[in-house]
Amino acid sequence: MSTDIFADGFKAEPYWWDAAKPAATLASPLPEATDVAIIGSGYAGLSAALELARHGTAVTVLEAENLGWGASSRNGGMVSGGVNVGKGRAMNDDATRAMLAEASQAYAHLEGIVAREKIECFYQRVGRFVGAHTPGAFEAQSRRVEALNRIAESEAYMVPRERQHEEIASDFYYGGMVVQRAGGVHPALLHKGLLEAAYRAGATLCAGTRVGKVEGAPGAFRVQTSQGEVRAKEVVVASNGYTGDATPWQQRRVIPIASFIIATEELGAETVRALFPKLRMISETKRVLCYYRPSPDGKRIIFGGRARFRQATPQESAPTLHRFLCDRFPQLDGRGLKITHAWTGNVAFTFDKLPHMGRQDGLHYALGCNGSGVVMMTHLGHRTALNILGHANSPSAYEALPMPTVPLYGGNPWFLPIVGGYYKMRDWIDRRRAG
């Protein structure tokens, strides 16, 4: 493992935590009873708690670690509405159109919460460039643009390879798609703002309260935790990539996949602007993709991807991500680029690659961010709260979907190295064929 890429003072924790580290400062003791118990203090759980508390419902959020310890304070902070929903599905399918339309509404909902709660989280609608890793991928993107604009209001357009440097100072892609209705956020500050908003509204927040078992039925649940028992009329499962055996039906339907991220040392605003001329968020069409962006202050690069298909330490994954970054920006190679932070977190994927909400055995759930959790999990948590309150005007497009699993799967994704290796091979073959 290369060690010369690590800056002095390197931290094996999220860059975002420098501004907002998960803590228990707003936490309260576990109550004996509550109207609604929510498992998980991420975007989905807090969004549900905020809406419930604003309507006078007694709601308790149960978090195994410090509040916000999971993916909500670890992700890349990239925000969009509908770009990845239905990826690979026929765009003329009624269900896909309904999901895309709702994803567009979800984007507006997030912007509304940030404005209403006055959350200072560096949210900016700077747009996203989705790089095509092959000419065929570019053509596939071209076929989606019209539907994305018509249904999801994406404000998207195609950029051919000869104009690619208007978006990114890299020759790695074969052109790509710009989505203007997209942006970036400081994810930990967004989480902190949601947490404080839920607290102001009256939600009870319980840190270090791991759920061990849920028994009973609607109106009379008993939730066993590491801090004791709490009685609840309703229970919401919002644990996503950290869903455990306390809720086995949900655990069998969520695939926790590790994502790895690094933050570079400060490169300076001028250098970053030269690499990202419009300061856009960047993703790509590869199966095993990378995603990256300027930091909110515009002085460094935040770069993430699937550096491993097994659990690994940040120190083990960082050299691979460093190499991936220099593959896309060769001008950074050889200049002694250092990494100040490296971290990992679990992303909640599903077997159909779609977000889900619904109710099973009396338990509500909002699960499966599939890499787009900032918008979708905030939205589905909100929609779950509306269902509990009886305020939903119509069903969500995401609660009418069956949530599949596969035989013998119990929550341990032992197959990821095999599937990941296959996808990497497919990507390699595609790039070789593209020259």
UniProtKB/TrEMBL annotation:
Its source organism is: Oceanibaculum pacificum
Gene Ontology cellular-component terms for this entry are:
cytoplasm
- Which keywords has UniProt assigned to this entry? Oxidoreductase
Residues covered by the FAD dependent oxidoreductase domain = 35-385
Q: Name one GO molecular function term.
A: oxidoreductase activity
- Keyword S-adenosyl-L-methionine listed? The answer is no
Indicate yes or no for the key word Oxidoreductase: yes
| Name of the molecule in the record | Oxidoreductase
Q: Which Pfam families match?
A: DAO
